Backbone:
């Protein structure tokens, strides 16, 4: 549940942009004693004036930020988050299912936690197409079997070391090479980052007009949330679980996160 606050949306908008602290905490693999990158958020103390014209300009393909009043700092942090393709990709092993790469597992997480489950995960030291990779045992031939067996591994790891995979919520994310592809299996949502799978979600912003002025509705996350407690958020947002359409998920999240009734969200 989020607390929703209306914020004025005049001709000039003032943002307090969150930036990623670039210090990295390494703990060996994906969490717990494994290696992963943890980013701490800090807020910019000064507010930045930013007009709708600036938004349109920033969306253009040839946009080249050249002063401190634009979103260059934000884009730099996006670039930093996406650095894995060239700088740290060697630290990860492709997860290959049915000749498709569906994720990337950190070397440390695999060695420390997954390698021992030899009846589930198979380490392939060399492959003509993918090089070194990890796949699932060929006896696990259906999505249902893979989901069940991998789910047992995740549950075992979570019980063995409670801080390794926090926030187990018994919600499944589909594991597939692209958005429109059929899933090869489904994975506990909290474990998705440890397997480097593609995850999808829905987000919605809300506007309201009062006395000729437009207001942007901004949510504040509950302090009890597992991730980013107490921080500002979209009006409605949520991860896209297995077997649910974007429309259905958005309607569900409207009720859960913002108390928007079905009679309104259906519109």
Residues:
């Amino acid at each position: 549940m989020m607390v929703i606050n209306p914020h004025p949306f005049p001709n000039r908008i003032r943002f307090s942009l969150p930036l990623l602290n670039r210090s990295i905490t390494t703990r060996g693999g994906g969490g717990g004693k494994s290696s992963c990158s943890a980013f701490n958020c800090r807020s910019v103390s000064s507010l930045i004036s930013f007009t709708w014209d600036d938004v349109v300009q920033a969306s253009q393909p040839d946009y080249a930020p050249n002063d401190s009043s634009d979103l260059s700092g934000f884009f730099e942090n996006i670039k930093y988050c996406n650095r894995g393709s060239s700088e740290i990709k060697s630290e990860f092993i492709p997860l290959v299912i049915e000749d498709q790469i569906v994720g990337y597992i950190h070397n440390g997480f695999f060695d420390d936690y997954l390698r021992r489950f030899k009846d589930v995960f198979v380490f392939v030291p060399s492959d003509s197409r993918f090089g070194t990779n990890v796949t699932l045992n060929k006896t696990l031939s259906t999505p249902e079997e893979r989901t069940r067996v991998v789910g047992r591994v995740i549950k075992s790891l979570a019980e063995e070391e409670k801080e390794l995979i926090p926030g187990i919520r018994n919600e499944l994310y589909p594991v597939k090479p692209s958005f429109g592809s059929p899933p090869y299996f489904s994975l506990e949502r909290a474990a998705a980052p440890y397997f480097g799978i593609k995850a999808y979600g829905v987000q919605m912003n809300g506007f309201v007009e009062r006395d000729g002025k437009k207001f942007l509705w901004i949510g504040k996350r509950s302090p009890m949330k597992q991730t980013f407690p107490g921080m500002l958020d979209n009006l409605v947002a949520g991860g896209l679980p297995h077997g649910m359409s974007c429309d259905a998920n958005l309607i569900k999240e409207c009720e859960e996160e913002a108390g928007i009734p079905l009679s309104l969200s259906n519109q």
